[in-house]
Amino acid sequence: MRKALAIMRKDLKEVFSSRQLIISIVVPALVFGVILPIVFGLSFTAEDNSTEIGILNQTIYRYDGVVLRDSSEVIAYWMMNYMLPILLMVLPCGITCVVAADSIAGEKERKTLEALLLMPVSNFELFIGKMLAPFVIGVVIASVSAIVSMAISSYFSISLLGKSFLNISTWAITILLLIPTVAFMAITFSVIVSVYAKGVREAQQMSGAIIVPIVIILIASATNMAVFAGVSRILLALLFLLTGLIFSYVSSKLMDREKLILRV
């Protein structure tokens, strides 16, 4: 594992020495961790008298058992515990795809991949080392953004509605289970794409396809809260983990140094 950690440290140095990569990491973190919670928070006082609010209200009562007095509380609860956690799952997915694509496809562009493959490391150590940097960056940035998002949304909820509607269990599952498994799935998919991609830009564009399942979950949860309620969150994390393990098996085969040398 020492050699894998050495590869991770090398990749981390390259990431934080690249202004473009830093911007690609910081900007989404600010958008999802700060700007979106503020925008949502400012809407907590808005009243919604549409008939859809009744359906939303029933769904939340049914799955979370929280007593909400009016439409403003329903909207605040829904945004804080459904919309924000789901949107935040895009963050580890996007960040890990960007970093993982640069980690492998970037080596091709910089003409350093062949030197890396000739290092005295096993295929397993090479595979793990290349996955660690994007995983650590994605999980840490997304988790910090989630905590900041919780604090901002709670501040607006308390200030404008008199109390916080934050569901701690929802956010705990998001930070401890969903963010790591989404990041793992995204990294393993990006490794597969990066092996075949000719350059970083192509790898990043192709890796972006992994965000599609997150968007589907977001749309589905907007119409049916059961998609992202209670045990469903844990099942989603298990699904992401299983998908990541399948991608991991495929990508580990592709990370064979003999095959990679032929693609350099």
Give a concise summary.
The chain is an all-alpha fold and 264 residues long.
Topology summary:
Blueprint: H1 2-16, H2 19-42, H3 52-64, H4 71-88, H5 90-109, H6 113-117, H7 123-161, H8 168-196, H9 200-207, H10 212-223, H11 231-254, H12 257-263
Number of helices: 12
Which percent band covers the strand fraction? under 5%
Fraction of helical residues: over 70%
| Gyration radius, rounded | 20 Å
Total strands: the figure is 0
Task: Give average pLDDT, whole number.
Answer: 79
SS class: mainly alpha
Unreliable stretches covering 5 or more consecutive residues: 46-51, 57-63
Largest sheet: none
Give the tally of structural domains.
1
Based on CA inertia axes, which overall geometry fits? Answer: elongated
Report the span from N to C terminus.
25 Å
What is the string of helix and strand elements? Answer: HHHHHHHHHHHH
Describe it.
There is one protein chain. By secondary structure, the chain is mainly alpha-helical. The chain has one domain (2-263). It contains 12 helices and no strands. The chain has helices at 2-16, 19-42, 52-64, 71-88, 90-109, 113-117, 123-161, 168-196, 200-207, 212-223, 231-254, 257-263. Helix 2 (19-42) runs antiparallel to helix 4 and helix 4 (71-88) packs antiparallel against helix 7 (123-161). The model is unreliable at 46-51 and 57-63 (pLDDT under 50).
